[in-house]
Specification:
Blueprint: E1 2-9, H1 15-24, E2 28-32, H2 53-68, E3 70-82, E4 90-100, E5 105-113, E6 120-123, H3 126-136, E7 143-145, H4 160-171, E8 176-180, H5 188-206, E9 218-224, E10 227-228, E11 238-244, E12 251-255, E13 259-260
Helix pairs in contact: 1-5
This protein binds zinc ion (ZN) (2 copies).
Pfam family, one: DUF6671
Protein name: DUF6671 domain-containing protein
InterPro entries: DUF6671
Amino acid sequence: MNPDQIALLTLHGKAEALEPLARELGLSLVVDEGYDTDQLGTFTGETARAGTQVEAAARKARLACERNGTRYGLGSEGSFGPDPYLGSVPWGIEVVVWYDALLQVQVHAAHQGPEVCWRQQSVASVAEGVAFAQSVGFPAQGVVVGKPGEAVFNKNLRDADALRLALEQGLRHGPVWMETDLRAHRNPMRMQAIARAGVALGQRLAQRCPGCGARGFGPVRLLPGARCDCCGHPTSNAHAQLLECPGCGHTEVQKLRETVPASRCERCNP
Ligand SMILES: [Zn+2]
Ligand SMILES: [Zn+2]
């Protein structure tokens, strides 16, 4: 396997977002456009994704190595929905996985936030559909008209004429479902978010294990037990985090804080 290359499967132009990461790692990026990543899952529901988001991204990273004979692979996977706090704004989570086929280890990082173009709406007229498309920035931002299995289901509309035609056809059968295209090459905000996840992954990979020197040494979980600064009771708040090497399993505990205010104590402020 080639130790100087890192492979990426993408039908959706993700090389644009992840090329800087490859450069930072001193590797040349092999862009593999020959594998239909849509068979691993689509956003529009024709194919459901198997497993968690990290598992899905890791599968792509491993496949990229296998198909291209490289030591390293990258895989990316996004998920979208309402924000986890109030559920009132669209929220995107981008995960990027780095895989080392020689050591058979993986490291991942994520970027999440409200900067995502994820909107959907049912429209009852061509004017309403055109207004929706304009409001999300079509055609730079793609829109999908219809759902899988319906009379009209089109996610390859390139201009206003094609959009009108699809809406006219769909509206003959009643209201038409429209949503923003979440594929990276048709969603500029998503492309930026993938790039940010790539930056986070680069930072993680820059950390070397003090035991074996492998890349990706870093936090894997928080350790509860910070004491209340009023009553001294150990709370559920983290006092430290556990750092772990993805290669040899070496761990270290990094202290975060000794105490938390009484307002965060289960005993003083139940
Ligand atoms: Zn190690
Ligand atoms: Zn207390």
